[in-house]
Design goal:
Blueprint: E1 6-8, H1 15-25, E2 29-33, H2 44-57, E3 63-66, H3 69-77, E4 83-85, H4 102-108, E5 115-120, H5 129-142, E6 146-151, H6 157-166, E7 173-177, H7 184-188, E8 193-196, H8 210-217, E9 221-224, H9 228-233, E10 242-243, H10 249-257, H11 263-276, H12 279-294
Parallel strand pairs: 1-2, 2-3, 3-4, 5-6, 5-8, 6-7, 8-9, 9-10
Helix pairs in contact: 5-10
Amino acid sequence: KNIDVVFMYSIATNAKAAIKVCKELKIPIIHRTFDIIHELVREEYLRKKILKIEKEVYPLFDRVIANTPHMEQWSKEMGSNNTIVIPQGVDSNLMKPLFPKQNLLKQLGISSNDKVVMYLGSIESFSGLNILLEQIPQILEKIPEFKLLIVGGGSHLESIKNKTKQMLLENKIIFTGYVPYLDVPKYASLAKICVNTFVINSMTDKLSPVKIFDLMSCGKTIIATPLSGLLFDFPQEEDIIIYSELEDFEKNVISALNNPKIEDIGKRGREFIKEKFSWEQISKDMLKELSQAVK
């Protein structure tokens, strides 16, 4: 009663039930798609089951709003008949540059001389952190003050921790686990640069990770693998992300940490975010689509 439109994110948990109810009550249902869900699942049985659900439900949504052209194309491949692209947005009043808090520096064992590189987000097989770890001894040869701050968690967290111990890097790598979303600027303030080391494959290449938008809004310079989704939102010619193949992260991290003007890239990135991806503008676009669905 009194529901004009249903706007949903989930697929595996309740999409089929939600669609059934909406069809019975003649309520439009819109799906916002960010990820290819079945490719994020490790168990083969569940992966096949979720892919089957995706193929069943995408044709039944009244509209699909993808965040990148790659996700738009994938939605169409799943049978979506009405798909558009609206990119992600950021509240730049929340995700903003901050000064490092001394109590947090002390808590994490970071000194004023340390040159901190931060990885934020999920720690899975595709995260690429294991490859970055292999490069750390070479980075330390050039920059002894280097420290890696890993903020997040996931199924491969323990294997990364074990590799850290095996490589005798416990005093150079800091693990925080998951932190509240609103604390992201506080942790970002500790880092000179941030990295996104995703291995590029058929699943990750379509992504434009939300964390990149948040970190860029915080004014951070980012080194990232060239995911097609990212290149769409942040074209190389804009010079607001340092794109690097995984095997070249070592030299690019060293170059960035030695560059006294490296923060200029982060400043340009924040202005780009405010101009192109403000929540105010994205919200207007979303509300327009919701209004049209009701008509």
